[in-house]
Structure formats: C-alpha cells, structure tokens
Amino acid sequence: MQHSPEAAILVSIDFGGSDHSESLDELRLLAETAGVRALAIVEARRQRPDAALFAGSGKVQEIAALVERLEAPLVIFNHDLTPAQMRNLTAKLNTRVIDRTMLILDIFAQRAQSHEGKVQVEIAQLKYLATRLVGMNQDMGQQKHAVGARGPGETMLELDRRKLAKRVHLLKERLEKLKQQRAVRRRARNRHDVLSVSIVGYTNAGKSTLFNRLTRANVYVADQLFATLDTTSRRMFTEDTGEIVISDTVGFIRHLPHSLVAAFRSTLEETIQADLLLHVVDANNPMRDDQIAEVNKVLAEIDAGDIPQVLVFNKIDLLDVPPSVQRDDYGRIARVFLSAKSGAGLDGLRLALMEAKTARQAAAASDPDAADQVAASSENQTNLASGEYGIE
User: What is the mean pLDDT of residues 316-324?
Assistant: First the structure.
C-alpha cells in the first residue's frame, strides 16, 4: 500500500483543556487545507507531555504500528514539539514527523502571493527551522516538496545557523523598507481624511466574502483556513461615506504560533494603524465566543487591542436571525448581523461605516487628537455571552 506524500496520521493529545475537541477539528481542517489526506486519527489523554516523546512510549509504539500497517509517509502532531522530541519521534516512528506550527507554516508558504508575504513566510520558516536543522537536513533534503518542507525557506536548510541568521537579517531589512513604503501611503490617506478600516476575525469566518461584497473586489474565497494570507486593501466610495480604505487581513486561529504573529506583524500593520476594526464572527459556529476571545488576544499581542471595533456577525443565512444592528450605551453601532453571502444586512454595516466616518470628521474638526477615539468602543466587544447577541 503506497500513499502519496500528502497522506498522514494525525495525533492529538488531550491534556485536560476545554478546547481539545475544537482543536482537533481545526487540525483536520488545517491538514485538508494543506492538501493532506488523513489516514487515521490517534487521540490520547495525558496529564503532561512526555519530555522525550511527547506522547509517551506506549502511545508512540501504537502510532509506530499504525505507521507500519498503513505505510504512512507522515505523522502530524496537533502540538508544538521540541527539537529533541521531533528527532526522537522521527527515529521511533521511522517516518517524517511535523508539528502544528510546521503545518501552518506550510499553508502560509502555499498561500503567500505578494513579495512581502513571501518574505515574511521565509523569515518565520528560517527562525523555526534554525533550531531543528540537526538530524533534519537529510530527511528534508530528500522531500523538498513534501508537506512541512515547502516554501521559500526550503532552500536554506543546508546552510548553517550563522548563514541563516544573516539571511533573516537581510530579509528583515527588506521587510522594513516595505513597511516604510506602506507608512507613506497611510500618511497620504490621513492627509486626505480617508477612514481606514481593517477586517479581522477568526479564520474561515467569511472576512474575504464580506470584503468582496463591500469593495466589489475579487479576493480568493474558499471554505479553508488561511484562504487569505496577504493583506489586500481597496478603496470604497459611496455618496454617504465618501472614500474609505478597507483592508482584508489574515485570519486568526486558536494557538496561532507566536513566531507567526511576530513575522506577520508588518502585514498586520494595516490593522494596527486602522481607525476602525470590523471583527467578523461566524454566527453559526457554537464556539464563536471562544473565537472572539482568541482574536482579541492576538489583537492585544500586536498592540491593536484598543482600536475601536464593530462586531459583525456573519452567516445569519444559516440561522433564524434577521439582519439588524445593535447599539451600545452611547448610541454607537456596536454589532451588525448580516450575511456576506446573500448581502442581507449590508445596509446596516454601511450605516456603521458612515457614522464612524462622520464622528471621526467631527472629532478631527474640534480636536485632531481625539479622532481615533470616536468609533464603537472596543470595550463592548469582549467577554459577552452569546445570549446578549440574540443568538441561541
């Protein structure tokens, strides 16, 4: 029985966390997004990771037997592995082993389209792989196009750490130049009183569909994780709102590797500098509250936690919920219920944008320093139960 390199055994260990089931579902979708077919799924419960093998010797023997029986070319762990654990597991299982971060990096390598996106992927790959070169060179060199070994970073695996560090430094300098160019464009927008809006949210919540609806753009949309990687900005103009720049950003996910947050900080710069965030939520997802919290956690990590938000509950076409808006205690639109797919409820979102721009202009006229504080308060977006949204 021979399988292509895009087939794998998935392994997920439950350490007692409340989100194990959801994390495993995401691993399945991550694997599918990377083009990997799941041959089998192995689950286990432990109090803590095993220092040498992460899953413990008994469970590793079980996985090894499964690898031999299915002739699995790859095993993917739904966790971050230390370099020593990865080497030990590779030896014990006699097949390639990657962890959750490597899987996400592989997806990012496939998705990056712009020069800047590719640079950031390479930086993240090189930083991650620098501590894992020992014992990996031969295996990775033989499988240049396998899952977990794709992307611009693959050609650097044969270099030593000193050369890797030099390459990362060079890429960071290139990234800084791109960041400066983007800052010039932002200053030009500010001079022309253009409201800057960023669409953020958990991955697969429908951000790009909403972006396309608002801007009539043609951004790639798919029922996959990280379908959008590069930030895309478009101008939107209506009689009521005038000119608005809307940016679609990479989706967030549970346990997003810190190295990726750091590497993509410049891409998320549009989010950090935005006047208003449209935080898109999959209203049909029973874990929406946890996803809102995860997105807000990453926003805080990139210093965007205090930017005003409007919560946009998408996919109401899958629920018995009518299009509507909800206002906060100050009369500002804080929540919008819509379907980006059908267009129902978009008028409510356009009203929120119009009111945000009007308030910003009024504040700028009286106090330029207050212009950033006038849209819907971000404090109203966190720690809310779904019942308060009117969604059961």
Answer: 93
- Does domain 1-98 fall into CATH 3.40.50.11550? no
Q: Which of 291, 142, 129 is nearest to 204 (CA)?
A: 291
DSSP 8-state class, residue 250: P
pLDDT tens per residue across span 41-72? 999 999 999 999 999 999 999 999 999 999 99
Nearest to 65 by CA among 99, 100, 95: 95
Q: Retrieve residue 1's tokens.
A: 């029985």
Across 263-288, b (16+ Cβ under 10 Å) vs e yields bbbbbbbbbebbbbbbbbbbbbbebb
pLDDT of residue 166: 79
pLDDT at 219 over 60: no
Average pLDDT, the chain: 79
Q: What's the number of CA atoms in the CB half-sphere (13 Å) around residue 36?
A: 30
CB contact at 8 A, 229 and 111: yes
Q: Is the pLDDT of residue 24 over 70?
A: yes
- The domain spans of the chain are 1-98, 102-188, 193-389
Residue 377 has which token pair? 């308060």
- 137-143: Cβ within 8 A, 24+ apart: 139/90, 139/96, 143/5, 143/96
Q: Classify 128 as helix, strand or coil.
A: helix
What's the CATH architecture for 193-389?
3-Layer(aba) Sandwich (3.40)
Instruction: Give the predicted TM-score (pTM) of the model.
Output: 0.72
Q: How far apart are CA 66 and CA 61, in angstroms?
A: 9
From CA 15, how far away is CA 24, in angstroms rounded?
13
Residue 301's pLDDT band (cuts 50, 70, 90): confident
1-98 against 193-389: fold identical? yes
Contact 206, 340 (CB under 8 A): yes
